[in-house]
């Protein structure tokens, strides 16, 4: 099984300033995978390298086939097949796979690689910091306060999530257009 994460247990240990114990290693490995998954979801794109993966795409336009933006970080298209035959008369232009002859209505299978070949240091730092933060909080504890000791426990169904610092550190990697949308209720108009 291939473990997809933006950092390693050794990266976490280096930032903690000590080796991980044999008991900590499986937990840190699981947290690394969890934080990586949450980071990729927050950013709206796959950040960990995926090699030689098949994408099945449905043509929407006559000559241009849009690659989903989740798969576009360091995208390399290796092969394109349609109806069982290899195609060579295509060009990759940004997120579009263009074929002058058109795509017709048949499904297109694209074999591609995407994601960072080596994660940027800033991504590794964000992931490690979040894992260390998770390790510092006892399971089931939502918040702790040191002065006049205060502990707030979360419900049993509470799941780990990215903290504000992690979300701020990931913003440069976030796909454009994935911001939040503020909705406001229109005030009823008063007619006299």
Name the descriptors.
single chain, 192 residues, alpha+beta, 2 domains, 4-stranded antiparallel beta sheet, 4 helices, 27% helix, Phage gp6-like head-tail connector protein
Task: Give the gist of this structure.
This is Phage gp6-like head-tail connector protein. The protein is of the alpha+beta class and 192 residues long. The chain has four helices and nine strands, in the order ααβββββββαββα.
Molecular structure report:
By secondary structure, the chain is an alpha+beta fold. The chain has two domains: 9-46 and 118-173, no CATH class; 50-114, no CATH class. It is built from four helices and nine strands; from the N terminus they run H-H-E-E-E-E-E-E-E-H-E-E-H. It has helices spanning 9-16, 24-43, 121-136, 164-170, and strands at residues 50-57, 64-66, 76-82, 85-87, 91-93, 96-98, 108-114, 141-145, 150-153. Strand 3 and strand 4 form a beta hairpin. Helix 2 (24-43) packs across helix 3 (121-136) and helix 3 (121-136) packs antiparallel against helix 4. The longest helix has 20 residues, at 24-43.
Approximate strand percentage: 15-25%
Number of separate structural domains: 2
Mean pLDDT: 85
Helical content stands at 25-40%
Multimeric state of these chains? single chain
- Taking pLDDT < 50 over at least 5 consecutive residues as the criterion, the unreliable ranges are none
What sequence of helices (H) and strands (E) makes up the elements? HHEEEEEEEHEEH
**Overall 3D form:** elongated
Number of distinct helices: 4
Total number of beta strands: 9
How far do the termini sit from each other? 70 Å
- Biggest sheet strand order reads 1-7-3-4
Using only C-alpha atoms, the radius of gyration works out to 22 Å
How does the helix and strand content classify structurally? alpha+beta
Major pleated sheet: 4 strands, antiparallel
Protein name: Phage gp6-like head-tail connector protein
Organism: Streptomyces alboflavus
């Amino acid at each position: 099984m291939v473990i997809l994460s933006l950092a390693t247990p050794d990266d976490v240990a280096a930032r903690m300033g000590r080796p991980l114990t044999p008991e900590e290693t499986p937990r840190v490995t699981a947290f690394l995978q969890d934080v990586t998954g949450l980071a990729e979801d927050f950013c709206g794109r796959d950040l960990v390298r995926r090699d030689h993966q098949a994408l099945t795409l449905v043509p929407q336009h006559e000559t241009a086939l849009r690659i989903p933006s989740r798969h576009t970080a360091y995208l390399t298209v290796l092969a394109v097949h349609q109806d069982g035959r290899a195609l060579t008369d295509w060009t990759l232009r940004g997120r579009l796979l263009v074929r002058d002859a058109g795509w017709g209505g048949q499904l297109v299978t694209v074999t591609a690689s995407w994601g960072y070949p080596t994660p940027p240091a800033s991504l590794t730092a964000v992931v490690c910091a979040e894992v260390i933060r998770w390790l510092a909080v006892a399971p089931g504890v939502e918040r702790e306060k040191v002065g006049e000791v205060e502990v707030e426990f979360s419900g049993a169904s509470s799941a780990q999530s990215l903290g504000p610092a992690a979300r701020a550190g990931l913003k440069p990697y976030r796909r454009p257009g994935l911001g939040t949308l503020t909705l406001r209720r229109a005030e009823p108009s008063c007619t006299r």
